[in-house]
Structure formats: C-alpha cells, structure tokens
Amino acid sequence: MTTTPEKTERIQHTEKAQRTEKTAKNLLDPGFELTLRPMRYPDFYERYRDAIKNTWTVEEVDLHSDVTDLAKLSPGEQHMIGRLVAFFATGDSIVSNNLVLTLYKHINSPEARLYLSRQLFEEAVHVQFYLTLLDTYLPDPADRAAAFDAVESIPSIREKAEFCFKWMDSVEKLDRLETKADRRRFLLNLICFAACIEGLFFYGAFAYVYWFRSRGLLHGLATGTNWVFRDETMHMSFAFEVVDTVRKEEPDLFDDELRQQVTDMLREAVEAELQFGRDLCGEGLPGMNTESMRQYLECVADQRLQRLGLAPVYGSENPFSFMELQGVQELTNFFERRASAYQVAVEGTVDLDEDF
Predict the structure, then answer these.
(1) Which residues participate in the annotated binding site for Fe cation?
(2) Distance in angstroms (rounded) separating the CA atoms of residues 288 and 320
C-alpha cells in the first residue's frame, strides 16, 4: 500500500504526540520535558534552591599552613598524601563526565536537570580545588604530570577508574530508555556513581583527610574537604531520591536480579577501595591501617545498601572515632565560621549518622 506524504506527516505527528504524552508520565520516559508549571517533582527543585545557598569558592580555602605540615610528615604519610592527591586529580572529572553524558540525558525532569546543572558547577569547583591542592602540594611540574597520569600508571587508582568506566560504558550507547532492561542499566549506572563512587570512594578518601585533621595536620585540606563532603552528600542524597521516585513509578524495575547486581556492585567497590587503602597504608600508620579501613568501608557500604532498601552484607562498625566526633565537630565549627559570609544551610544539615 502506497504511503502518501500527507499520511506520513500524520503518522509522524501522531508519534510525536505519543512521545510527548509518554514523556509526561514517568521520570525515565524518553523525551525532553520542559514544563515547570505545574511542577511534577518539587523536591528536586527545592534541592536545587538549597544547593544555590551553599555556594563556596576555592579562594576561601587557605593552604599556606599545609606546606609547613607537609615537611613534618613521615615517609609513609607523605606516600599517603601523594596517592590521595593523585586520586583527587581526576576523580571528580570522572563524575562530571558521567553526569553530562548519562544523568542529564536520561533523567527527564526540568526540576531535576536544574539540580544536575548545579551539581556540575559544584563538581567543577571540586576539580578547581583539587587542582589548587595539587599545585600547592606538588610544586614540581613532573610530579604534577605524574599525578594526572595516575589512572594509567598507579594500579590501585587504575582499578578504581576502570570500575567507574565499566559502568559508564554499560550505558554509553543508550540514546533512549525505551525498555525495562535499558532503565535497569541506567539505574545501575546512577547507583554506582551515587553509592560507590561519591558514597564510598570519596568517603574513603575523606577518612584519610580527617585522620590527618584529628592530629592537627593539613588544616587547609580538611577545610576544603568539609565543603566537598557536604556537596557530595547532597549529590548522593539527590541520586537516591531519583531512585526512590523511579521505584514508586515503576516498581517492577526493582526485581531480584537488580537487587543482587547492586549488592555485588557494592562488594566490588569495597574491594577496589580496599586495594587503594593497602597502597596508601602500607604496613600501617598510628590510628590508620588496612584492617581498620576495611571495617570502615564495609560499614559505609552497609549504610548505602540500607538506604537503597537492601539488606546489609557486612555487619561492620565504624572503627574511626575521628569520623564520628572530630569530623562532625569540624563541620559544625566550619559552618558557624562561614555563616556571616555565606547563606550556608546550617540548620538541619546533613544526617551524619547515615552518611558516615
């Protein structure tokens, strides 16, 4: 049967209308939703507004005293700092790439995309902070170049990067989330970057920073980390809210296979981060060793699983008192010091019991 141009145009118009109707139904439906009134997901918009209030700049972080502290460190501690700086050099850039290439593309809500735009800005500030940190801690250009090459040259960092790339590659060819299988693949990517990368890899790095801070060392690094910590916690909370929303809209996506994949993913992330910990800690340092880091990572992984509605698998407790006491106190003091200069959301801030 011959199809006339007029009929073809009608079919295309109908298909476009169907796509528009479908777009307005669920958060992961393909399309490019533009309507902010009526607002379908007001919580995402409020998260965007809260993030705007929490603006900070790298210029507010003073690293001068850190230079003096670096000279006081033992060879083992200097090795740890070198590895941390190398990880920080590229970690947030990987997160930014996934945000642009995957999350912004498939989370079909203008409210959510507002927040993701803000998150991308914050990731850029983190990259700038770590670049400034690297320039301060590593004055030799050759050492700086080596730090940026760490994803290729340092096995423990390469393993973490490959973990990230694996889950980025899993959705690389998805232009539209048409099928349930597509949406599950996207959810695994989202959960990976929220629970494993921002919620585990970075939290492991924060623990090393706060260990130095508990000993009165590297105040500038700890100060900047306070800001980064708060931002990453908000990013993770937003991602989990997206997961919760999809679970309400499409509960059949969350089958036994997906739940097992998430659990296995967290296990793999713990092992990758523990390998990094072995590299950093070596034979162990006072108050910081591979076994205590294992317990901490397992504790954090269980918290991430529970937040996702899954059963914990490790049953470990947080061995680091400086994360529960020193880190929390530093956050509180930091917010109080900056309240006069910024609209920092001090009241009802992060639920630290969950995120640590």
Answers:
(1) 92, 123, 126, 198, 232, 235
(2) 9
